[in-house]
Amino acid sequence: xxxxESIILxxxxxxxxxLPVSSSGHLELGKALLGDSSIPQESMLMTVVLHFATAMSTxxxxxxxxxxxxxxxxxxxxxxxxxxxxxxxxxxxxxxLIGMLFSKELEQLFDKQILLxxxxxxxxxxxxxxxxxxxxxxxxxxxxxxxIIGISQAIAxxxxxxxxxxxxxxSVLLGIDRSRAASFSxxxxxxxxxxxxxxxxxxxxxxLNDSHIGALGAGFVAALVTGLFACQWMIKLVKSSQLKYxxxxxxxxxxxxxxxxxx
Length: 263
Known about the structure:
Oligomer: single chain
Strand content: under 5%
Number of domains: 1
Order of helices and strands: HHHHHHHHHHHHH
């Protein structure tokens, strides 16, 4: 993969990680259109690195919230920050279990499965359309909510189902305040991404050579910078109930993907 192609994929990841249109699905579509001939392991490596970049952009945007959480944790008291951290941990469990138990099977799903991406984009579009009609409230995330949102995140491992779209839509349908829903959705994935990278490093799954470094680095920077803008934009869109427009987009791209594969 060339540096130019990596930058294109990085921009795609940076935009689509936060917009509810499935970053993994768009990455697979992007790889197919660019004629990527990487083996599944190399393709997955690029996907992991680009997700790491957008996780870093999340930490930058929510740095004040993250610092407050850490301060609260080290006070060793039953405070709001500790409760939020426990909810984040609860939300991680379903996706972490799926990732550990079915890692090999999941790897094959990131090998240009365009038909699957198209079908899952349609599912994402339907979910966003339903969520857009939900009334806004001032409810916060409860422990039960965290578990349900975590299940949505686990399902969204499938390429084509938007992780942010699934988790934010689930939160909104549960009656959670839209601003809190967006913040929780973006923060809950960060520990999973860091955990995934740590596991792959320890297992030896992330192996680099000189030919990888330039392309991965270019993609990382492109995803990080693009993600900084997309994250802030998405928070504003969620607050103003504009999810239906993304559902239309998912329907169009999903239909194109299905047609591309079948024709």
